[in-house]
Amino acid sequence: RIARNALTDHFRRQRPEQAVEDDDLIFLAGGAPDPEIEAVSGFRDCVRKAFAAFGEAFRVRAEVLMLVAVEGWDMKELATMLGRTEGATREYVSQCRQKARPFFEPCL
Fold first, then answer.
1. Which one in 26, 31, 44, 79 has a CA-CA gap of 20 to 30 Å to 54?
2. 33 exposed, middle or buried (CB, 10 Å; 0-12, 13-18, 19+)?
């Protein structure tokens, strides 16, 4: 619980849109879009804003996705931090991605 709280404090001190590279956010959106879409002005801003909105609506879920997609945590590490089994953690990450998808759909 102490580690979980320390991690939560860490994410509160930094804003996700400042701490993450655009390519990491694109990965969170469900993968790279069509190259023609990426060339459209404002695409990266759209992704950044979508992740920020997702983070405001689902702070903990956004933090979990950051740990998996950006920090490269595996399910075992994440399961330990969350206090869940690896199977339950995989399901939780899947649910996090499902909840994030509507935020990113306008960008894709």
1. 79
2. middle
Q: How far is Cα 108 from Cα 50, in angstroms, rounded to an integer?
A: 11
pLDDT > 80? residue 3 = no
Distance in angstroms (rounded) separating the CA atoms of residues 87 and 23: 28
Distance CA 88, CA 38 (A): 34
Instruction: Specify the pTM.
Output: 0.63
Mean pLDDT of the residues in the chain: 76
In this structure, what are the phi and psi dihedrals at residue 32, rounded to the nearest 5 degrees?
-70, 135
Q: What are φ and ψ of residue 33, in 5° steps?
A: -75, 175
